[in-house]
């Protein structure tokens, strides 16, 4: 199969899977306290798999389009958040893609920590107080919580799931040449 076609097909499948996962909350009644952990972990799984199966370029496609689609689905409440979430997603993709072959476990940990730090700094410290300053205090607190330590947890879970799933995928598929 043509490498370009293979890249496009795999990237599209991973994006579709990520969108399906983030759409779960629209179809399955997941309790709010659990929702972020289930959906976020599954989306992070797709981001890490994309980074490793189709490379940084394919991973960035998934990273950027998932928050755009989440906003269109009314899952991500404010359009101001889209670029920040895309940046956080891009961070885990890039860190994992660059470090995985050197040390897969360290790459997952560093990717998760980097994503968490990017989201915490850009959303909790900048976007919410500066760009969304007129938001009700309770809403600010809830958003700040959602973009703090739970992001680290979901990125780590998604990364560990990817470490488990990736060998199975590699047996079934040949990775796209990078």
By DSSP (H or I, 4+ residues per run), the number of helices equals 7
Unreliable residue stretches: none
Q: What proportion strand?
A: under 5%
Pattern of helices and strands:
HHHHHHH
Structural class, judged by helices and strands? mainly alpha
User: Sheet with the most strands?
Assistant: none
Give the overall shape.
Answer: globular
Q: Could you tell me the mean pLDDT?
A: 92
Gap from first CA to last CA = 15 Å
Q: What features would you describe in this structure?
A:
The chain is an all-alpha fold and 178 residues long. The chain contains seven helices and no strands. Helix 2 packs antiparallel against helix 3 (55-72), helix 4 (81-99) runs antiparallel to helix 5 and helix 5 packs antiparallel against helix 6 (137-146).
Summarize the structure.
The protein has helices at 3-27, 32-53, 55-72, 81-99, 104-131, 137-146, 149-172. It is mostly helical.
Topology of this structure?
Layout: H1 3-27, H2 32-53, H3 55-72, H4 81-99, H5 104-131, H6 137-146, H7 149-172
Helix pairs in contact: 1-2, 1-3, 2-3, 2-4, 2-7, 3-4, 4-5, 5-6, 5-7
For the structure shown, list the relevant keywords.
single chain; 178 residues; mainly alpha; 0% strand; globular
């Amino acid at each position: 199969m043509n490498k370009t076609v293979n890249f496009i097909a795999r990237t599209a499948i991973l994006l579709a899977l990520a969108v399906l996962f983030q759409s779960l909350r629209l179809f399955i009644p997941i309790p709010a306290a659990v929702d972020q952990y289930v959906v976020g972990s599954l989306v992070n799984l797709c981001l890490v798999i994309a980074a490793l199966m189709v490379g940084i370029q394919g991973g960035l496609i998934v990273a950027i389009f998932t928050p755009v689609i989440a906003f269109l689905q009314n899952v991500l409440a404010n359009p101001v958040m889209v670029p920040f979430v895309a940046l956080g997603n891009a961070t885990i993709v890039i860190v994992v893609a660059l470090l995985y072959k050197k040390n897969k476990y360290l790459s997952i940990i560093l990717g998760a920590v980097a994503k968490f730090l990017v989201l915490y700094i850009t959303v909790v410290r900048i976007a919410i107080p500066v760009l969304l300053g007129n938001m009700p205090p309770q809403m600010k607190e809830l958003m700040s919580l959602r973009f703090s330590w739970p992001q680290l947890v979901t990125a780590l879970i998604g990364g560990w799931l990817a470490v488990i799933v990736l060998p199975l995928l590699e047996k079934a598929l040949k990775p796209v040449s990078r």
